[in-house]
TrEMBL record:
This is Lrp/AsnC family transcriptional regulator. InterPro entries: WH_DNA-bd_sf (IPR036390), WHTH_HrcA_DNA-bd (IPR005104). Residues 3-81 form the Winged helix-turn-helix transcription repressor HrcA DNA-binding domain. It holds the Pfam family WHD_HrcA. It comes from Cohnella lubricantis. SUPFAM superfamilies: Winged helix' DNA-binding domain. GO terms for molecular function: DNA binding.
Amino acid sequence: MLLTKRRKQFLRQLVDLYRATKLPIHYETLASALGVSKWTAYDMLKAIERMGLLIRSYGPNRGEGGRSQVLFTPTAQAEELCKAEADEPAGNPEEWQATKAAVLKLLGGVRAGGIGEALQRMNADLKRMKRSRDFCAYSIVILLAHLQHAGGRTEEFVRQMVQKAPSGEMRMTMFAGAVLGAVCQTMAEAGAELAELAGHYLKSVAGLTDHEKELMSDLLLEALV
């Protein structure tokens, strides 16, 4: 059975909760942390359990008399897997620097007044992206290009809101939502296309490693200056 990006997301969150509490985790606790239904969390944990990465146990349910509740504990293999993923660099650092330089150059072209040509180039490049990290980087500058085209107070409002976000991942998700809302109000014709892009972007963000999320957050802050 394959450990997909979606399953990795659930496993990483459960491992984080276990490390914080040192106690087996109930699937409803995991569901609340991820913003999904308890049944989605339970089904996902059962799938991960079958891979040998979780150990099931039972504990008293304080809310329903004598009934027990299902709890999950990550195995040593699961903890090692999550640790290795967190420590793993996001590809070749030189490749990332090249990607970063390319997207910032394209964004500079937008600021110089050539939004149409720059967006065509960015959209063409985006379709060739195979790595989630690079897809997110190009998505960020495309969203920024539309935001700058909208201009006015909207751009400054989004900039301040994103810069004050409490975490890097929240910064990236807030940014996408804010840009989408702003652009739909000023450029309705671009709304449907951007909504589709934002959806793919948010899914890609969820699948990034912690290190990659830091890179994307830093790119966003740098591009907003």
